[in-house]
Specification:
With 181 residues, the protein is mainly alpha-helical. It has a domain of 109 residues. Helices cover 50% and strands 2% of the residues. It contains four helices and two strands, in the order ααββαα. A hairpin with a 5-residue loop joins strand 1 and strand 2. The longest helix is centred in the N-terminal third of the chain and has 61 residues. The radius of gyration is 44 Å and the shape is elongated.
């Protein structure tokens, strides 16, 4: 491979004048104008590059914040689902009682399993025993409205007023008027 001269390696440098005896020429007004214009364009490029870098950094920061928020939301949902599952298995009467649980001790490990749920449920059971059925796994005797069936409506009876005696008719009329109040 042929050796390259230093002039070939750095093409930005201006070549040395051919004759050292020639005095350097003066820069014309046109050249001055072009140099100012080039300097102005270089400054605009520098500003545009710095703005682009700032915008990219802000976009990366926003993305990282959004990812962190999404991960925290997912973690919270996993913890709540696991807490509900263990509470139901423990015989909780009303899931609204889970709001009283101290969930600060719960953590999610690398595999996604929630640690400390049993301790939180047991602590809640000891602090608020009325939230749980008598024994774990038993069907609660008092349940939420979603689990209770409403009473069956009473079947209406058809009474023909023409076939009743006057005393029976007045008794039936008084009963109907009393129930409508």
């Amino acid at each position: 491979m042929a050796e390259q001269s230093p002039e070939m390696l750095d093409p930005i440098e201006e070549p040395a004048p051919a004759e050292a005896s020639e005095p350097p020429r003066e820069i014309t007004d046109y050249e001055k104008k072009l140099r100012r214009e080039v300097a102005r364009y270089r400054e605009q490029v520098r500003i545009a590059q710095s703005e682009r870098e700032a915008a990219c950094a802000a976009a990366v920061r926003d993305r990282d914040e959004a990812v962190a928020a999404a991960r925290e939301e997912a973690r919270s949902r996993v913890v709540q689902a696991e807490l509900k599952t263990h509470a139901i298995r423990s015989g909780i009467v009303d899931l609204d009682g889970l709001r009283l649980a101290d969930t600060g001790a719960l953590s999610v490990d690398e595999s996604g399993a929630v640690q400390g749920v049993e301790e939180v449920i047991e602590s809640l059971r000891q602090r608020k025993p009325y939230l749980f059925a008598a024994e774990p796994g038993a069907t609660p005797t008092v349940t939420t409205a979603q689990l209770q069936r409403p009473p069956a409506p009473a079947q209406p009876t058809n009474v023909d007023a023409r076939s009743l005696s006057r005393a029976a008719w007045q008794a039936e009329r008084d009963r109907l008027l009393a129930s409508s109040r």
